[in-house]
């Protein structure tokens, strides 16, 4: 069973911007697939813009460890290019200034890793 909205399968791209988050984001990929989403994984934020532009994704989950790293730069580049795909930031950082920086750059949601499967799936369904 695949997750559909308006008869269109929801495709999610998870971008790993830092090796520190790899294991957590790979678990997230497994959880989302089990919930019926089509999920692709890109290892580097700077290399992800190529795969992101070639495929139609309904959501981008961007692993990020700081507001000036490659994940942040990808988010800014997407918004500067007027790409309005929803972006959820998955970060190990819980500081308010980090969250505010990401929201100001165009993030639609932000959650702190680790998280559980139910929370991740619920965020992707909305």
UniProtKB/TrEMBL annotation:
It holds the Pfam family Response_reg. Keywords: DNA-binding. GO terms for biological process: regulation of DNA-templated transcription. GO terms for molecular function: phosphorelay response regulator activity; transcription cis-regulatory region binding. Gene3D superfamilies: 3.40.50.2300. Residues 11-126 form the Response regulatory domain. GO terms for cellular component: cytosol; protein-DNA complex. This is Response regulator receiver domain-containing protein. The lineage of its organism: Bacteria, Pseudomonadati, Pseudomonadota, Betaproteobacteria, Burkholderiales.
């Amino acid at each position: 069973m695949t997750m559909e909205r308006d008869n269109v399968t929801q495709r999610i791209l998870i971008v790993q911007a830092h090796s520190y988050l790899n294991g957590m984001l790979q678990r997230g990929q497994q959880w989302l697939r089990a919930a019926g989403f089509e999920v692709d994984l890109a290892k580097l934020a700077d290399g992800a813009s190529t795969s992101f532009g070639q495929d139609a994704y309904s959501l981008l989950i961007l692993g990020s460890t700081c507001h000036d790293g490659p994940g942040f730069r990808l988010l800014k580049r997407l918004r500067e290019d007027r790409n309005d795909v929803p972006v959820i930031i998955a970060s190990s950082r819980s500081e308010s200034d980090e969250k505010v920086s990401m929201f100001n750059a165009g993030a639609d949601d932000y959650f702190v890793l680790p998280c559980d499967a139910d929370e991740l799936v619920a965020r992707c369904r909305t």
